[in-house]
Amino acid sequence: MNSTEALMEKWEVQLRKGTLELAILAALQQRTLYGLELLKLLQSLPSTTITEGTLYPLLDRLKRDELVDAQWVQEGDSRPRKYYQLTPLGTQKLTDLTGLWRQSVIDIEFLLANPGPQPLQKTGA
Amino acid sequence: MHQSELNHNEMIHRYLNELRRYLVRLAPHEAQEVIREIESHLFDVMDQQTAAGQNPDVAAILRGFGDARQLAALYVAHIEEGAPPPLGFRAIQRMKKSVTASLYFTMAVFGFSMAFALLFVAGAKFLLPESVGVWSTPHGNSIVVGFVSVPPMATPEVMGWWIVPVAAALAIGVALLTRKVLQVLKQHM
Predict the structure, then answer these.
(1) Interface contact B78, partner A, CB < 8 A
(2) DSSP of B25-60
(3) B53: left (phi over 0), alpha (psi -120 to 50) or beta
């Protein structure tokens, strides 16, 4: 791996780390999922791929912070599974983080869409 | 049950046992919850791989969870970090920690020494039956328990060989109680 690839990987790791909580809260939006379902959903998207060893301790932390709630459910003959859903506090946090995320995307898109050498002239919000 | 299935169960069992050991700082019900969820995940993935006609790859699934010690560290991180104490309270926190640590080691030495002494009394009865026992004066004014070089004169020995099972049971009880107390103290260290 050359230094550019290593830097890119490092940047990706940092980005994923910073957005992981938002990704999990968003995945649980109006949905109840158990750990494996949530893991598969996140792993199906290129930028939210994580491992079991990252997901479960993070779910545990979100539960302690009262952002998600969990219940064991047994359906038919299947093995009992622990299902997660957002709490009202989690829904509020998702709204707040979504606002921050969208503003970041708008700002970065603006910078990318306006290269030099002309000076930047941002108007409005 | 196939040999491969036994191996898979053995690998899972070993991993979960190791994880349980490193989760000792969590409350027992919290640690059990973590183990239960991970166990459910492991068997769920194995079932899905089997249903898809694949040979379950337990080693790969366990790799996803990573080293048991590191995984446990993520679960107990909140205990390590905790809420920072207000300024001026740090000295009290430090003192509390050091008192708990001293209590932990004193308790360990005292409890396990007691258990060992009781076991010693039980064992010594076989070697020196006349010197080990419980003696009581006729009017119950005084009592001598344990291992003596010269048995008290004119006082009957009241337990006989019963001292062996009684001392052994007490030794086990004291050792278990000490272990339990140490577990509780460890959570506060």
Answers:
(1) yes
(2) TS-HHHHHHHHHHHHHHHHHHHHHHHHTTPPP-HHH
(3) left
What is the SS3 assignment for B157? strand
Cβ A48 vs Cβ A20: under 8 Å: yes
**Alpha-carbon span B69 to B128, nearest angstrom:** 48
Alpha-carbon distance B58 to nearest alpha carbon in chain A (angstroms): 13
Judged by CB atoms closer than 8 Å, whether chains meet at B41 and A52 is answered as yes
Chain A residues closer than 8 Å to B64 by CB: 51-53
Tell me the C-alpha to C-alpha distance, in Å, between residue B20 and each of B35, B38, B185.
Answer: 7, 11, 18
Q: Is B74 on the interface with A (CB under 8 A)?
A: yes
CA dihedral over B136, B137, B139, B140, signed as positive or negative: negative
Q: At what angle do helices B68-81 and B3-22 cross, to 10 degrees?
A: 20
Please state, in angstroms and rounded to a whole number, the distance separating the CA atoms of residues B61 and A51: 10
Structure token pair of residue A122: 């941002």
pLDDT digits (tens, 9 = 90+) for B52-88: 999 889 999 999 999 999 999 999 988 866 555 555 6
pTM recorded for the entire structure: 0.63
In tens, the pLDDT along B166-184 reads: 889 999 999 999 998 888 8
Closest in B34, B47, B78 to A61, CB measured: B78
Question: Which alpha helices (H) appear in chain B, and where do they start and end?
Answer: 3-22, 28-51, 58-65, 68-81, 90-127, 163-187
A81 forms beta bridges with: A73
Counted residue by residue, chain A has a size of: 125
Q: Distance between CA atoms of A118 and A120, rounded to whole angstroms? A: 6
Query: Is residue B57 within 8 angstroms of chain A, CB to CB?
Result: no
CB pairs under 8 A between A and B: 44
Cβ pair B75, B26 in contact under 8 A: yes
Distances in Å between the alpha carbon of A52 and those of B128, B167, B182?
60, 49, 32
